[in-house]
From TrEMBL:
<dbReference type="InterPro" id="IPR000581">
    <property type="entry name" value="ILV_EDD_N"/>
</dbReference>
<keyword id="KW-0100">Branched-chain amino acid biosynthesis</keyword>
<dbReference type="InterPro" id="IPR037237">
    <property type="entry name" value="IlvD/EDD_N"/>
</dbReference>
<feature type="domain" description="Dihydroxy-acid/6-phosphogluconate dehydratase C-terminal">
    <location>
        <begin position="361"/>
        <end position="557"/>
    </location>
</feature>
<keyword id="KW-0028">Amino-acid biosynthesis</keyword>
<dbReference type="InterPro" id="IPR020558">
    <property type="entry name" value="DiOHA_6PGluconate_deHydtase_CS"/>
</dbReference>
<keyword id="KW-0456">Lyase</keyword>
<keyword id="KW-0411">Iron-sulfur</keyword>
<dbReference type="Pfam" id="PF24877">
    <property type="entry name" value="ILV_EDD_C"/>
</dbReference>
<dbReference type="InterPro" id="IPR056740">
    <property type="entry name" value="ILV_EDD_C"/>
</dbReference>
<dbReference type="InterPro" id="IPR042096">
    <property type="entry name" value="Dihydro-acid_dehy_C"/>
</dbReference>
<comment type="similarity">
    <text>Belongs to the IlvD/Edd family.</text>
</comment>
<protein>
    <submittedName>
        <fullName>Dihydroxy-acid dehydratase</fullName>
    </submittedName>
</protein>
<keyword id="KW-0479">Metal-binding</keyword>
<dbReference type="InterPro" id="IPR052352">
    <property type="entry name" value="Sugar_Degrad_Dehydratases"/>
</dbReference>
<dbReference type="Pfam" id="PF00920">
    <property type="entry name" value="ILVD_EDD_N"/>
</dbReference>
<keyword id="KW-0001">2Fe-2S</keyword>
Length: 575
């Protein structure tokens, strides 16, 4: 692994005896011996550890295990802290910063003397941002998902992070749980290091990254405190060195088949709808032809095999114990592209022969699915000319074909101000509509689509209503919620011209989302001043850049100028 000075990218900085090579080496000699610069691979560890991203706070320990593996394989590991995004804290929504994180990661991977990268993520946006950035640089890259936290319990019952916060807070509003007990449950919610333990976006994106082929098969879903995560991290460090030697870049691993495999996995695990925008954005960086419709055509008929919250009962610790992703994929192996590769150089399907289900309650066999059709449905109509998505598996059966009068809210503030008004003109058949929450409108496309139900209806026992929004929904939420309506209201979509009282038609079996108003009448309407006033108009900074350049949810809500790859070359020296 030595004596090849000049052959690797890092050697463009370190090889030779001129003044610049001297500078590059000298400043790095803080414990690194001379042979660190003899041409061996330099592996960055793109590390989203941050005290303000509590789900990723343990990744520094993971990085130490990666380092050992890199050293053992003859490489040089280099910790590279990158922009981190904590879902629960960052305002106005972590999604506003996903593209910023991806851009910063891309630029720092390209700008530095590295030959490959290990990507450490966890909390919702972190793995998508890492994959987007790495794809646009196209250096050998491998993901280690930081893993879910262990199951916390409250009064003997398991608590699912996220999902049970929604459930318990609705119980308080419905008067079936006291405020004191609600607060008491708080200290039980987060039992350990790791990300949310439901099948929310973080769990989904870790598993989806593995289905894409970007994780050592079998690693995703390993709980964060599990010793096997550190063992896998050591192995991943070794693999990163091997990947550099093999020239195994993201563009050589990820093809259309990889994304279709990810869609199959997403459906079978009952994963988060957020994976739609993230996968579209990652594919956009690679130039892979992936469309929102592929989620419906490839995923809609895939059976739901995993009984996890929010759609089901169990949590990620149970999922891992029951056999994890490979056990699920074995059940749907016939739906997978057999040629799609993984970071190891072997096809994904090559890892399925030994996979077993150890608990058939948590992971179902194909013949006994939780639901026969689990994937995401893409709806079209005069309310969503470019599409909208719904996860039927998380919806109420009786609402999947529904007509109802719209109650329209122009912003999340408008909704909060009026939703509990006893005079609000809504009943159980009403359709709640929240607009101005798309990528441009908010900005950042917040997870507000699972609007709280009016208290007066909760008190009547109503537990679900049709809700429609151009924003996203938390992966830990549930309900009959139509999301990602495109074009969004702030981009001139017809949602901006919907009026309270219009009759909205939702027909999921026939893939329709429409308003019962003639198209020419709808087109001739002007949005109200209050509607337009609610759209964001940032004056400077990232938000301004974002609003000017963000694309619709149907193409991943990336910035238009970040789609594609700039490759790994940097042409100019810094001195
Ligand atoms: Fe980080 Fe849920 S808040 S994964
Ligand atoms: Mg989330």
């Amino acid at each position: 692994m030595s004596g090849q000075a000049g052959s690797l990218r890092s050697a463009e900085w370190y090889a030779g005896n001129d003044r610049n090579a001297y500078i590059h080496r000298a400043w790095m000699r803080r414990g690194l011996p001379a042979h660190a610069f003899d041409g061996r691979p330099h592996i960055a560890i793109a590390n989203t550890a941050s005290d303000l991203t509590p789900c990723n706070a343990h990744l520094d320990e993971v990085a130490e295990s990666v380092k050992q593996g890199v050293y053992e394989a003859g490489g040089i590991p280099l910790n590279l802290p990158v922009v981190s995004l904590g879902e629960t804290l960052v305002r106005p929504t972590a999604m506003l910063w996903r593209n910023m994180a991806a851009m910063a990661i891309e630029e720092m991977l390209r700008a530095n003397p590295i030959d490959g990268v290990v990507l450490l993520g966890g909390c919702d946006k972190t793995i998508p941002a890492l994959l987007m950035g790495a794809a646009s640089v196209d250096l050998p890259a491998v993901v280690i998902p930081g893993g879910p936290m262990l199951t916390g319990t409250f009064r003997g019952q398991p608590l699912g992070c996220g999902t049970d916060v929604w459930r318990l807070s609705e119980e308080v509003r419905a008067g079936t749980l006291s405020q004191d007990d609600f607060i008491r449950s708080e200290s039980s919610m987060i039992r350990s290091r790791g990300h949310c333990n439901t099948m929310g976006t973080a769990s989904t994106m870790g598993l989806v990254a593995e289905a894409l082929g970007m994780v050592i098969p079998g690693v995703a879903g390993t709980p964060a405190p599990d010793s096997r995560l550190l063992e896998s991290s050591h192995q991943t460090g070794r693999l990163a060195v091997e990947m550099v030697q093999a020239g195994r870049t993201p563009s050589s691993v990820l093809g259309r088949g990889s994304f279709l495999n990810a869609i199959v996995a997403l459906a079978a695990i009952g994963g988060s709808t957020n994976a739609v925008v993230h996968l579209l954005a990652i594919a956009g960086r690679l130039g892979v032809d992936l469309r929102q419709d592929d989620f419906d055509s490839t995923g809609a008929d895939v059976p739901l095999l995993v009984d996890l919250q929010p759609a089901g009962r169990f949590l990620m610790e149970d999922f891992h114990r029951a056999g994890g992703l490979l056990a699920v994929l074995r059940e749907v192996q016939d739906l997978l592209d057999p040629d799609a590769l993984t970071v190891t150089g072997e096809p994904l399907v090559g890892y399925l022969a030994d996979a077993q289900i150890w608990d058939r309650e948590v992971i179902r066999v194909r013949a006994e699915p939780l639901q026969p059709k689990a994937g995401i449905a893409v709806l079209y109509g005069n309310l969503a000319p470019d599409g909208a998505v719904i996860k039927p598996a998380a919806a109420s059966e009786h609402l999947l074909q529904h007509r109802g009068r719209a109650m329209v809210f122009d912003s999340i503030e408008d909704l909060h101000a009026r939703i509990d008004d006893p005079d609000l003109d809504v009943d159980a058949d009403s359709v709640l509509v929240l607009r101005g929450c798309g990528p441009k409108g908010y900005p950042g496309m917040p997870e507000v689509a699972n609007m709280p139900l009016p208290t007066k209806l909760l008190e009547q026992g109503v537990r679900d209503m049709v809700r429609i929004c151009d924003g996203r929904m938390s992966g830990t939420a549930y309900g009959t919620v139509v999301l990602h309506v495109t074009p969004e209201a702030a981009a001139g979509g017809p949602l901006a011209r919907l009026r309270t009282g219009d009759v909205v038609v939702l027909d999921v079996p026939n893939r329709v989302l429409a308003v019962d108003v003639d198209d020419d009448v709808l087109a001739a309407r002007e949005p109200d001043a209050a509607t337009a006033d609610a759209f964001a108009a940032p004056a400077r900074g990232w938000e301004r850049l974002y609003v000017q350049h963000v694309t619709g949810a149907d193409t991943g809500a990336d910035l238009d100028f970040l789609q594609g790859s700039s490759g790994q070359q940097v042409s100019r020296e810094s001195h």
